[in-house]
Backbone:
């Protein structure tokens, strides 16, 4: 999972904040790092579009920038490569991940218009919708009145405690394997959180319910919750410490609250196929968690479509 990490950078200090998180990984896994920077060939210039000389100049500037970042790693004997990409950032990132055989994409969510605009129809959103490998996301926004060029203070959590959030569906359980691999590198404790969500869409349960299931009047105790029990059984071969937690309420709020209450260092969750991710992103779990969480997120896109949902709903 960490053998080949693709790291999109755009030249800003905020984008570089992800490097502090990547440092924790490559040192333990001897990962190969791929630093990429996208140069768009259709950037408006003086009322027209980029000319060949200006595009070539920006390619040279991007390569010089990436080489400067790469030197930090080559001095530490890391395996690092630089790639200047051409095209729209999201598409270029996804193409590069496939071409380089990346096993993870690590990036920040940020932008001059703020995290919500970045997520809604922009780079991080598009990467999450289509990435075939896990994505490590770090929120790097500041308050609206903060100087645009000032980066948020980077935190370097040791990933001692990882919050694994699942709703009990087959697709959401896709996060268990990647979270186990992540935790095994650091000997992390995994907090398996299952939230029985009372939200119902068009009469069909959305979270915390499988076919034939109905939400209980109150959340069962963790020892009685079959969802967290399944997580624990899957994690048992790893020997990792697993704490099981069951809550009843609104999923995103419970995930966020529990992450703060338990001082977790990473939140791990799975999204569903492209269509359902779009619904999630427009006001539900991943967007809300990422917008409010104080720690990085490990997100896996599971291709399988949930049984209860259909495109007509």
Residues:
């Amino acid at each position: 999972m960490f053998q080949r990490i693709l790291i999109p950078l755009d030249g800003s200090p905020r984008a570089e904040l992800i490097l502090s998180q990547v440092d924790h990984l490559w040192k333990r896994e001897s990962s190969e790092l791929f630093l990429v920077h996208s140069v768009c060939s259709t950037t408006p210039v003086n009322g027209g579009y980029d000319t060949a000389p200006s595009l070539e100049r920006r390619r040279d500037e991007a390569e010089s920038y990436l080489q400067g970042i790469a030197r930090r790693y080559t001095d530490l004997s890391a395996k690092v490569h630089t790639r200047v990409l051409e095209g729209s950032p999201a598409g270029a990132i996804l193409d590069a991940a496939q071409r380089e055989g990346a096993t993870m994409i690590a990036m920040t969510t940020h932008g001059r218009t703020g995290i919500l605009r970045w997520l809604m129809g922009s780079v991080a959103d598009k990467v999450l919708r289509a990435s075939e490998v896990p994505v490590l996301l770090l929120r790097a926004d500041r308050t609206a009145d903060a100087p645009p060029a000032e980066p948020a203070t980077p935190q370097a959590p040791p990933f001692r405690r990882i919050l694994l959030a699942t709703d009990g569906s087959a697709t959401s359980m896709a996060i268990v394997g990647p979270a186990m691999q992540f935790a095994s590198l650091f000997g992390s404790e995994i907090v398996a959180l299952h939230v029985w969500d009372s939200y119902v869409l068009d009469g069909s349960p959305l979270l915390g319910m499988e076919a034939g299931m109905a939400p209980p009047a109150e959340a069962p105790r963790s020892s009685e919750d079959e969802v967290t029990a399944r997580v624990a059984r899957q994690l048992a071969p790893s020997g990792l410490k697993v704490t099981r937690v069951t809550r009843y309420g609104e999923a995103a709020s419970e995930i966020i609250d529990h992450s703060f209450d338990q001082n977790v260092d990473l939140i791990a969750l799975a999204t569903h196929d492209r269509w359902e991710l779009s619904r999630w992103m427009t006001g539900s779990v991943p967007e809300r968690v990422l917008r409010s969480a104080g720690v990085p997120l490990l997100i896996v896109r599971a291709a399988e479509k949930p049984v209860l949902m259909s495109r007509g709903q």
Observations:
- The longest strand covers residues 189-197.
- The CA atoms of residues 168 and 227 lie 5 Å apart.
